[in-house]
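Continuing the series of single-chain predictions for the mutant panel. This is the parent chain; the variants come on the following pages.
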Amino acid sequence: MKRSLSIALALSFSTLAWSQSTSAPQGASSEQLKVRGPEATAEQEPNKVVATIAGQPITAREAAAMLKDVSAEQRRTAPSLASLVQQVYMVHKFADKATEMHLDQKQPWKEELDATRANILGNAYLNYLSSTSSTPAETPQQYYDSHSGEFEQIKLSGIFVAFAAPGATAPAGITRTEDQARTKAADIQKKLKGGASFASLASSESDNKPSAAKGGEIGTVNLAETNLPANIKTVISNLQPGQSSDPVQVTNGFYIFKVDSKSKLSFDQSKAAIAQKIQTDRNQAVLKQQFANYKIEVSDPDFFSNGSAAPKIPSLMRPPTPGTPRSPAH
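Parent structure:
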């Protein structure tokens, strides 16, 4: 599993300029030119020096090992793989210096390290229990075949009609009431059924300005992964490409959705995520069983009070005489 770097360095990748030559050295053979990327280079030429940091040569094997600690998202957003190797190198050097100074034995870092170690080993034991469970595990292919709807991707557009809901933040300049928004959404839906262009109406009528500027285009959503509310998922999953929905109420407005297209992720594209989900589900099942083995019986409820309830302090007030105000006891 890819891990994200857990240290925040005082570096701004957006302001760093990297000048890396991509031209091949003179005299390089066509076979050498085919070697590209950290994994391929590390496999074919593991001892090749690919960079130098603070005078220290970094081999392809070392650089590739550093990049194993980097998530796919970090690779995608970083200005270069070289910047990521530099950051991982610095993290490890900082850790070495902290160890030399015995900072790992001082608070609060010792406590945090102990907690992290316990979490890692606890998860390792949970994975062990899961892997040795007698319950047969569903294979990724079986899951893919039996949950085909989860791998459908929907390219979605929308028209948003906002209203100023009490306690909710309305888009700037929106003062219409919920009833006024409902009426406007119904009018837009009527125009759509009459053949009006969804993109044109989105551009002129939608209160979601970023998507309105793109003709209502919201983007592509995966119903298995998105955090869309259940009612919205149901609506858009039942739409066919080219169809638009009735107005759907959300916290501070109404949405009219249009499905532009539907596609399905292949098994190869989904395999890694499915395997992770199956492992997570098995871990959760094992964890549920383990909770029964470690059932807690509370003998002092006051100890576990979170302090949110008002303390029960004996009253210093005399019972009032009818028709007279309360007064503190003397």
